[in-house]
Design a protein that fits this description.
single chain; Arp2/3 complex 21 kDa subunit ARPC3; two-stranded antiparallel sheet; globular
Amino acid sequence: MIPPSVADFFSQQQNLLWILTVCLDLSLTLVMFRLFGKTGLYAVIVLNVLLCNLQGPKLVYVFGMNTSLGVILYSGIYFATDLLSERYGKREANRAVMIGFAANIVVVVVMTLSLLFVPTPVGEKTSKLAADAHGALSFLFGFTPRFVLGSMLAYLVSQRHDVWFFHMIKKATRGRHLWLRNTLSTAVSQAIDTTIYSLVVWWALLDLGTAIELALFKYVFKLVIAVLDTPFIYWARAWNVTRSDWHDRDEYADEVTIDQTTP
């Protein structure tokens, strides 16, 4: 799918690739928001939650530090909830957080059940393909109870805090300084997320010093993304996103007429 020349270039430019991927993720969030309004942001949160489970195990080395590739998409969730908070209020942002939490539970349950199925032993090529697929799925979705507890607890606590803190800052500044509430709420909430995840998950696998070191590296990248997404949220705040931006205006008018005339 990717031309070899492009793959070769980015294999030598991992820092640039990381920055471009962050900008692409934020840009796609804006596209979803532009096309579908708050529904698009709900979709972004669910998609990022699902994709984080796939990208999380992939460790990359950028800017002289080890980090998980899933940091980019996970940080994008905070951008989406902050945009929901700014445009639609606290209630809608909290609803999106809970939708993402529910989606995470569904993924854990469904994928755990899928791993109970034994790969087919019938057919030489078929059985090999099935065994390879089962091994890959086991690696990606072979969740341990500690991982499930740590990741879900970190997500729920930090995301709810992000929404609460965002609106607390907004109220304290009387709606001014969007950059402050966007960056500060995300920075503090990401610190909570990283701390919970590191203590519950990593500390069980590594010594405390190593767990703290990995957490600090991960948090640096989260802070960078929190700063980078500020221009994007200013841009999106100025848009007039309504239902008629996606639906045909005549079709929407017909729906309204039908709703008003139906007894």
